[in-house]
From TrEMBL:
GO MF terms, alphabetically ordered: O-methyltransferase activity; protein dimerization activity
Top-level taxon of origin: Bacteria
Domain O-methyltransferase C-terminal: from-to ranges: 184-365
Annotated organism of origin: Methylobacterium nonmethylotrophicum
Xref: Pfam families: Dimerisation, Methyltransf_2
Keyword Methyltransferase listed: yes
Protein name as annotated: Methyltransferase domain-containing protein
Active site location: 294
Keywords, in A-Z order: Methyltransferase, S-adenosyl-L-methionine, Transferase
Gene Ontology BP term (one): methylation
O-methyltransferase dimerisation domain location: 61-136
Amino acid sequence: MKPAPRAFPMTSVAPPENPSWRDRLLAWRHRLIASPHFQRFAAAFPPTRGIARRNARALFDLCAGFVYAQVLAAALRLDLFRILADGPMTPDALARRLDLPPDRALCLLRAAASLGLLTALRDGRFALGDLGAALLGNPSVAAMVAHHAMLYDDLRDPVALLRGTAAPTRLSGYWAYAGAPDPAGADEAAVAPYGALMGASQALVARDILDAYPLARHAHLLDVGGGEGAFAVEAARSAPELRVTLVDLPAVAARAGRRFAEEGLAGRATARGGSFHDGLPTGADVVSLVRVVHDHDDAPALALMRSARAALPPGGTLLVAEPMAGTPGAEPVGDAYFGFYLLAMGSGRPRKAAELTGMLRQAGFTQVREHRTRRPLLVRLLAARAP
Ligand SMILES: CC(C)=CCC/C(C)=C/CC/C(C)=C/C=C/C(C)=C/C=C/C=C(C)/C=C/C=C(C)/C=C/C=C(C)/C=C/CC(C)(C)O
Ligand SMILES: C[S@@+](CC[C@H](N)C(=O)[O-])C[C@H]1O[C@@H](n2cnc3c(N)ncnc32)[C@H](O)[C@@H]1O
């Protein structure tokens, strides 16, 4: 009988001719961990039992991540957390509110409780868990979870994506500027969905940036790729004397201009439409690139930093704020999530703070300094001074 094909073909690679003692030690460790015999032994042996269980759980969570994400997606679609915001409920009452058969409702409730989204009370009722309660305060996370349907479609064949042989992705169409030859030509219908998503998710980052780097010390902010103005509005509110100019693609800038007028900021906030690849207006003493640099490959990202340098007066400041690769304690956020997200989008990559610092120096900035943000997994901040 023909053997079944391996789901993950193993390629054998000849070992290096003179491995170092470190490589040999590592190879021995890996052979040991890979051995089912050792795995069984380690799971029973008291000194290694804890490590073995933690590793098994970590590997299981990697296998099951999509399932956990779909439990969250179902709970959000059914509005479960808002329903429970008023207090604990019995499974039967919840089944009626969610319009689910009682056994299916219980399946969801138990799954959500196992993930910390809900708490199963001793009397059989279900209440919000700490994570479910935190979601209530971050409604934009729900929008991101719904948006992930598109990302997961694109990740269906991750190897094709890595090899560049995948069909055009949904995310590259969603982000109308990604790899577009004429991004400035994008119309309102093309930019509105991502503009709204970015605007909503600014709630997760704007205050953290402004708390880490208060803008009251500056006179005029130029927010480059500022989207529909959510960060600019928050910046203007935080510093009542600050003037703000926002640059984005014409269709996006038009939406930002309307937002400034609605917020009563038309007197000190202006939106300018155009491509930032064609240079930046002068006059500001601080330029911000919020969640913009990681969208772009190295050459255009460096060119953008050079344009910011050219637009600033001596002593002016460039702020680069985005999630970064290699963030201690949040490595998978930058390297796995944003790494694959941007791959699916078809442009850019997450960079380490040190890489961005190197690029900023190359672009002519000095004194690059990181300002600590509250939640570095969501956004980190570099401030670079123009000499
Ligand atoms: C009260 C008592 C007694 C004890 C309390 C115990 C305690 C201290 C509990 C802590 C509770 C607490 C304050 C929790 C707070 C939780 C928070 C703030 C959670 C925030 C979660 C944020 C998430 C999950 C954010 C997700 C963001 C995503 C997925 C962003 C995606 C961004 C994308 C895709 C951006 C795309 C832009 C592009 C294209 C890359 O440029
Ligand atoms: C990921 S969004 C970030 C928006 C906003 N800074 C925020 O953090 O919510 C990237 C922004 O860059 C803008 N953008 C992309 N390419 C551009 C270009 N060539 N010229 C001007 N803006 C551009 C997009 O329209 C979008 O608003």
